[in-house]
Specification:
mainly alpha; 65% helix; 0% strand
């Protein structure tokens, strides 16, 4: 692109109208309210992270199935790695959040 050609402006949060800013803020408040709680019990945080990772693994499996249907082996292979990592995190979060018995297990 030559310097004389016009470029479209980059839209940034500061370029948004006040109405757009209010609408976006209202939409995000509900999503972020739990995230920015002043204090969350560690067990609740671990449980939420575990459930989020379980949901992510499910969505990744769905995407993997679509890749298999279309014989996209490369993308399916990448997703398999992500599924493994997600399942590993889910297991660690489960173990971190459960109470041990009197024998230390």
């Amino acid at each position: 692109m030559s310097p004389s050609e016009s470029r479209s402006p980059l839209v940034t949060p500061t370029d948004l109208s006040s109405t757009a800013t209010k609408d976006i803020s209202a939409a995000m408040n509900g999503l972020l309210a739990d995230v920015f709680a002043l204090y969350v019990e560690p067990s609740d945080m671990l449980a939420e992270l575990r459930e989020d990772n379980k949901a992510l693994a499910g969505r990744l499996r769905e995407a993997h199935n679509v890749c298999e249907e279309h014989r996209d082996i490369a993308t399916a292979s990448l997703i398999e790695g992500w599924i493994d990592e997600t399942e590993r995190r889910t297991w660690f979060l489960y173990e971190a959040g459960r109470r041990g018995d009197s024998g230390g297990r």
